[in-house]
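Notes, p. 3: input format for complexes.
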Amino acid sequence: MKIIDLRSDTVTKPNNDMLKAMIESDLGDDVYFEDPTVNLLQNKIAQLFGKEEALFMPSGTMANQVALLVNTNTGDEVIVESDSHIFYYETAGPSILSRIQLRPIKSSNGEMNIDEIKNAIRDDIYYLPKTSLICLENTHNRHGGMIITQEYINKVAELAKENNLKMHLDGARIWNAHKATHIPLHQMVEKFNTISVCFSKGMGTPVGSILIGSKEDIKKAIKWRKILGGGLRQVGLLAGACLYALEHNLDKIDIDNQNAKFFANELIKSSRISLNIDKIHTNIVTFKIEDKINPNDFVTKCKVKGILLMHIGDNKIRTVVHLDLTKDMLLEASKIIKSILEEL
Ligand SMILES: Cc1ncc(COP(=O)(O)O)c(C=O)c1O
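Output follows (344 residues plus pyridoxal-5'-phosphate):
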């Protein structure tokens, strides 16, 4: 049976050309900073994002956690959106590693209300935690791949500046936002101290994330990465895949974004699905199925027919379009999903 895997854009497998690029990469020991492929990738990324330095990371989670370690001190408080990856999916890492407290603020689209952020910033009093950092996520995963606008980022940055706070961006899927808005990457991240980006999502590599920031911050990040066991040796093998992705897959992200709209337009033809097409900004299509339908039954029935999906709570189903899915596969998936919903 042909499987159509819509659970995430992390499920892609490297094609032969990417594997060839990996195998042909020049290698060295990156703990001694001697891997030419990693060095090339890090320099390219720092330049592309307009920051001083960049550092290869094994995962997006490690890149975010190291960013928190770099930007905060023990006991600080960090403002995050309540559905952000850092708050929702990083297994309380900030309380274990940075020993900080997260201050989650709810939003409907990943953009926390500015007044609520303002109210959450602590006064400088000894019996209160010190607010030191604001984190944003672009695109926003649990808000269905929505794009955080530059106008909003500028407002948060103004507030951060007034209050002497740092800013971190979880840009795991910044590529999708960049392609959808045509805003240059360096402009999108100008206001942030640190940025994490992933290659193992829309860019289609098997492994690889990068933390980007100032020379001083990356110096601290190198130490934290080593402490966390992320100092890798001949990692040019993986960086080679990222360089390949920059050259060959970045432009294909546009196709994913467009295919997601196509898929969403097919899904809304079902009366059992609620989906706001205006909220499909990039490659994630989250839809709600009727309350009377058991979401686990639905996901299981889809699986039996070869369609893999993810229930993310509240009868909401997340699907993610990626490199390994064609428009025809999405059309077929939408037909199967709709017919299963009719049966339930
Ligand atoms: C927005 C966001 N940030 C970070 C991550 C973590 O990446 P990784 O799975 O490489 O740890 C993910 C993973 O899905 C994500 O969606």
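The CA atoms of residues 76 and 237 lie 37 Å apart.
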